[in-house]
Write a structure and sequence with these properties.
It is a single chain. This protein folds into two domains: about 120 residues, Orthogonal Bundle (Fic-like fold), CATH 1.10.3290.10; about 60 residues, Arc Repressor Mutant, subunit A, CATH 1.10.10.10. It is about 55% helix and about 5% strand. Helix 5 packs across helix 9. It is elongated and about 65 Å long.
């Protein structure tokens, strides 16, 4: 979260309802984040009202107008210079609706659409404060519709590990006037994190966990059993076969070919 200075130990203490030595604002930010992410499954990803409700939870007690779209013009300053002038307030609701309609109905991959949403949301800057946190939260909400893994691997966490590069990439795209570099950056961060998760935590995953994780990697591409095993290096060939057979039986995977020529794709 932007401006959050609490350590992991302080957050743990807070969760245990013990006294915390930290600025009150930082404690409130953590409380709000916990409450917001606890309700993440209840948000409607394509509803402006739901987005406003999430903002109210996330900024409660931190700003006077939490949950309200801004009604004034704003500019984003970098040092002594104005780096970006956000759209006029009267255009915000229409632009948000168009952006959410694009994510809901366009045929692009959801991973790409969620990155476009994140970038365009920052440009629209619909709230007076908290737009960065909301953009990262809502990309997670969107991705969870098809990739439940992101409930436990939120965009906020991924960005925290690459925070300066994240802001630098946003600024560079703003200067260029297009989002390609930001989309590439976000997809790279997601891909790297998923790759690490796939190779370091297989022992704790069920067969269906592995199947769901692997979908985030191969997306709509066809793959063979050997490729599946290469990602989950600690499982045996028989375990891989069992995973793939179970997913096929449940219509999660579509199987074509026989023997060595067998390939799978997500249905």
């Amino acid at each position: 979260m932007e401006g959050n200075t609490l350590s992991v130990d302080q957050v743990t203490t807070l969760l245990e309802n013990k006294p915390v030595v930290a600025p009150q604002k930082d404690i409130q930010e953590v409380r709000n984040a916990i409450e917001t992410y606890n309700q993440i499954n209840e948000f409607d990803p394509y509803s402006i009202n739901s987005l406003r409700y999430a903002h109210r939870l996330l900024l409660k007690g931190l700003v006077d107008n939490s949950g309200e779209l801004r009604t004034t013009s704003v500019g984003i300053a970098k040092g002594d210079e104005v780096a970006h002038i956000a759209p006029p307030a009267h255009l915000i609701e229409g632009q948000l609706k168009s952006l959410l309609d694009y994510v809901e109905h366009d045929e692009d991959l959801l991973l790409i659409k969620s990155c476009v949403f994140h970038y365009e949301f920052e440009l629209i800057h619909p709230f007076i404060d908290g737009n960065g946190r909301m953009g990262r939260l809502w990309q997670t909400v969107l991705l969870m519709q098809h990739y439940p893994l992101f409930e436990f691997l939120p965009i906020e966490t991924l960005i925290k590990q690459h925070q300066q590069l994240y802001y630098n990439t946003l600024a560079k795209c703003d200067r260029l006037g297009e989002s390609t570099l930001f989309i590439e950056f976000m997809l790279g961060v997601i891909d790297k994190t998923l790759e690490e998760l796939l190779t370091t935590q297989p022992a704790h995953l069920t067969g269906m966990d592995r199947i769901k994780l692997y979908q985030s990697v191969v997306k709509e591409k066809r793959f063979a059993r050997r490729e599946y095993i290469q990602h989950f290096k600690d499982i045996s060939a028989s375990t891989a076969s069992r995973d793939l057979r179970e997913a096929t039986d449940k219509d999660i995977l579509i199987k074509t070919g026989d023997g060595r020529n067998t390939v799978y794709r997500y249905g």
